[in-house]
Specification:
5-stranded antiparallel sheet, 5-stranded mixed sheet, 2 domains, single chain, TIM Barrel, Immunoglobulin-like, alpha/beta
């Protein structure tokens, strides 16, 4: 043994400062297809001295710019999991959790009493990688003392097919404005927003929440979120005129970064659709709030507004050439007691949206059975009910309430996140939704938060539920372990689709079936998941 202990670990390991290293996660070789992103970790600590010293970390190979290395930093988590569900976590107690992946642009330190780790990525999406074996030498050095370990990556001469799944993680523009102190619609707003949208697409998010009006989501009753409104409104008596320049700017940005689908923000308030979203307008030269919490969403005034807005909006979406890929929302997560109001709102807007998709996150099958929503998006722990009904083109979602399913909490093992790709493939789920790409607010958006110091929405939900990326310096996006694992889940699904085209879906499912894999109450073993993916690569 040298000065350091060093290990190469698979991408699903989590290196905690206060827990022993999980030696079962040690991995020194792997395979990838030439147009995906492969990740592994390099962990290190002092072996023969006490205290801490500055070190240099590097990774050397013949992969050139395809290889990058980032330091795995830690964030606090003051709420890991609900008290009755702590047994499903790998770290049930509050503490510091590994997550943000930061550029190594400052001094790193090795410790004698705890492990640290870096994340190494090989990106075949932006770089041409030569098929064959590539040895990556991971090195840690302090002064003249050096220790190394090798990782052998075999790049296969095969490509993943394009992603079929539609995936959205709700994109919160107000959080970007608040964190970076920029005005909506400013040049800086558009630059930063494009950075975050591009990163989303690179990780498999191909649908973007499009705020035609300030999204009526996670907002306190009679409270407001920062105005984010892509459609300009001018009121003249009972008549309305609309401006779509900002919306066209948004569409152009989306096309530039590769967004394929547009998720139009909700036309009615969350959890019941009783009120209108906040809508700002100019009337008699004054810019003011036209609709909001004091607006009966089923009243004639708002109906009159929608009857003029929707024809104008759908015309512009058709002119922009995106009508086929636009999805409209009524209201988010209505309960069964809200069915009558929801159906009333849905019935009103459907004639205006007959050429468009309408979908919503909800888990009561009655909304689908009554025809209130043509495309239900149930939580993943309720999806089986919809599968049993024979619902075609089914979507699913998870959020804070799904603890016996796949999910992305900081305290969950990464395998519980990555297994989502297998489940989506097996159950033919065509779309997936999660509500927090970058929600940097407290419960009901009462105030903004710094995601580096608070990962739980102010002790509201288990850490990791509210966002999956961090805001970096100068508007850059800081990825996370969870974001990289989500991309791996999408890549797994695409690899399964490629193999299914070759040997059939049933044969692919047999490769990973153990104890009849379901959407809830399953086992997720990291090494098994990775071995299945490598078997799929071999068969491809």
């Amino acid at each position: 043994m040298g000065t350091f202990d060093v290990r190469t670990l698979n991408s699903l390991a989590k290196v905690f400062m206060d827990l022993p290293l999980d030696e079962t996660m040690t991995k020194s070789e792997g395979t990838m297809l030439k147009n995906e992103v492969y990740g592994f970790q390099f962990a290190f600590r002092f072996a023969d001295m006490t205290g801490a010293r500055g070190v240099e970390i590097s990774a050397e190979s013949d992969l050139g710019d395809a290889l990058s290395i980032r330091f795995i930093d830690y964030v606090p988590c003051d709420f890991t999991m609900y008290p009755d569900d702590l047994e499903v976590t790998v770290h049930p107690q509050p503490g510091l959790f590994p997550d943000p992946l930061k550029k190594i642009d400052w001094q790193l330190f090795a410790q004698s009493d705890s492990w640290r780790a870096v994340w190494i990525s090989i990106d075949g999406t932006k770089n041409e990688i030569k098929p064959g074996k590539h040895v990556i030498t991971c090195k840690v050095q302090t002064g003249l003392e050096i220790d190394t370990t090798d990782f052998t990556l075999t790049v296969l001469d095969k490509k993943l097919p394009n992603q079929k799944l539609i995936q959205t993680n709700w994109f919160h523009c107000d959080s970007l404005c608040q964190y970076y102190h920029v005005d909506f619609n400013s040049d800086e707003f558009w630059r930063i927003t494009e950075n975050f949208a591009r990163s989303a697409v690179e990780h498999g998010i191909n649908m973007l929440l499009t705020p035609i009006f300030t999204p009526p989501l996670d907002t306190a009753y009679m409270g407001e979120r920062l105005t984010i409104q892509l459609i300009d409104v001018e009121k003249n008596g009972d008549k309305y005129a609309f401006g779509f320049n900002k919306l066209y700017h948004w569409i152009e940005m989306c096309k530039r970064v590769g967004v394929e689908y547009y998720e139009i923000s909700h036309l009615y308030t969350q959890w019941g659709c009783k009120y209108a979203p906040k809508i700002m307008a100019t009337e008699n030269g004054t810019y003011k709030k036209l609709f909001g919490w004091d607006t009966d969403a089923h009243g004639e005034e708002y109906k009159n507004f929608l009857s003029q807005l929707l024809p104008a909006l759908t015309k512009e979406l058709k002119n922009a050439g995106i009508a086929d890929t636009c999805y409209f929302h009524v209201s988010d997560e209505p309960g069964i007691e809200m069915l009558e109001d929801y159906k009333s709102a849905s019935d009103f807007i459907k004639p205006y949206l007959k050429d468009f998709h309408i979908f919503d996150a909800l888990s009561s099958v009655e909304f689908y059975q009554t025809g209130a929503v043509p495309c239900p998006v149930p939580s993943i722990d309720h999806a089986q009910k919809f599968i049993d009904l024979g619902v075609q083109n089914l979507w699913a979602y998870f959020c804070c309430g799904q603890v016996t399913t796949a999910n992305r909490f900081l305290a969950f093992e990464s395998a519980r996140h990555r297994i989502l790709g297998m489940q989506l493939f097996k159950f033919d789920i065509v779309g997936f939704l999660q509500w927090g790409y970058n929600f940097y607010n407290t419960f009901l958006s009462i105030k903004p938060l710094d995601p580096y110091s608070n990962t739980t929405g102010g002790n509201w939900v288990p850490g990791g539920d509210t966002f999956i990326v961090y805001p970096g310096a100068d508007g850059d996006v800081v990825s996370s372990i969870r974001f990289e694992v989500m991309r791996e889940a999408m890549q797994d699904m695409r690899a399964m689709q490629a193999l299914a085209a070759k040997i059939g879906k049933d044969a692919v499912v047999k490769l990973f079936e153990y104890d009849d894999l379901q959407l809830t109450n399953f086992k997720a073993d990291a090494n098994w998941l990775i071995s299945v993916r490598e078997k799929i690569n071999e068969l491809l």
